Amino acid sequence: MTVQIDPGKLSQLGEAVGSTFCLVTNPQLIDEFTVVRDAPYDNYLTIPFSEGDRFEDLLEKVIPEPAHILVVSPYRFFQSPDPELLGGRRKLMAMACNSTPTTMKEIRHFLGVMEATSASEQGAFSDTFFELAEEAEHLQYVDRVHGTRAVLQHLSDGLVWNQQAGPLEWGDQQIVPAGEISVLPIEITDFHEDLHLPLEGEIVLRGYPILHNGTPSFSRLDQARIHGKLAAMREHAVKATVVRGRITTLEALDPGAAPAVEMLEQMFAVDSRYRIVWEIGHALNTSLDLMPGNHAMNEVYGGTEGCLHIGLGLTPFTQYHLDMIVPDTKVLGSNGTALIGNSELPTVERLVGAH
């Protein structure tokens, strides 16, 4: 049974009239998809994206303008093109399905999430988030379950905020499923170990680890083994002390967290850059049901009122990038107003098959 893609249900794309819908996917998957042609596009194309192909060449030679593009490429690393190459009459959505093992089962599930995602609601959520952030002197990351607090001086010069949420305009591109506002100390594609977020205090790592691989040679078995140790944080909490944006100490808050602490310490020993809290992601996709396992597309899980995730390392500069979804942590302004999560209630955690 093929997986259906219905571009008419992808609300980020907007008006179809006058455009071409382009599905870009790996050659071995072309027959696995059926594109529903109910939306009033002028044309529909399915374009193979093979090992050795450059997406920029497809933009130049194959993909027309105006076009709505969906990239589904679990077998070939996809890198977002330069905005100038994308052009001013294209909209691009790319599923995050290469940095973790992804089968058609996962693709089917997260396509359903994409169809359920409201671009207008995400746009409104994002507007409110930034309005509240601008009114705050600093942001607080508070875990009342475990009694921790960290403070981000979010108005500091040099910080880079990225919004992957809301409707797409011509020339825009978005990783999907969408729904994230992230902050980093430099542009999202760059990394420098001398930089850091102005973050101080204690954070708790308890939730759902996602271990993304980079482009250098690696072993899926190693990736699964490392993730398996880190998965202890699904039920057991690790407290991290952060000084100038860098993790200085780890503490297992109960014995079950010991395997995760051991693995994190090993990662720190191999590459000290993993100690840097490089990214803070404020996820706001409230239509996403978490899929158990190591899945990149879980990253934008927003519970019912938004959810936080912490990013360590950055591919391709480090071998892996670790995102840690932490549903117990709320994001509050300096006056206590909640930007992410209800300040008094736990975030609802939804797993597939457990509603």
Task: Name the features.
6 helices; single chain; 355 residues; six-stranded antiparallel sheet; globular; seven-stranded antiparallel sheet; alpha+beta
Produce the secondary structure layout:
Blueprint: E1 3-5, E2 20-25, E3 33-35, E4 43-48, H1 55-61, E5 67-72, H2 83-86, E6 90-95, H3 104-116, H4 119-135, E7 139-143, E8 148-152, E9 160-164, E10 173-176, E11 180-184, E12 199-205, E13 208-213, H5 220-230, E14 238-243, E15 246-252, H6 258-270, E16 277-283, E17 307-312, E18 320-326, E19 330-333, E20 338-340
Parallel strand pairs: 1-3, 2-4, 2-5, 5-6, 6-10
Antiparallel strand pairs: 7-8, 7-19, 8-12, 9-11, 11-16, 12-14, 13-18, 14-15, 16-17, 17-18, 19-20
Write up what this structure looks like.
By secondary structure, the chain is α+β, with helices and mostly antiparallel strands. The chain has two domains: 3-95; 120-340, no CATH class. The protein contains six helices and 20 strands. The chain has helices at residues 55-61, 83-86, 104-116, 119-135, 220-230, 258-270; strands at residues 3-5, 20-25, 33-35, 43-48, 67-72, 90-95, 139-143, 148-152, 160-164, 173-176, 180-184, 199-205, 208-213, 238-243, 246-252, 277-283, 307-312, 320-326, 330-333, 338-340. The chain starts with a strand and ends in a 15-residue tail after the last strand.
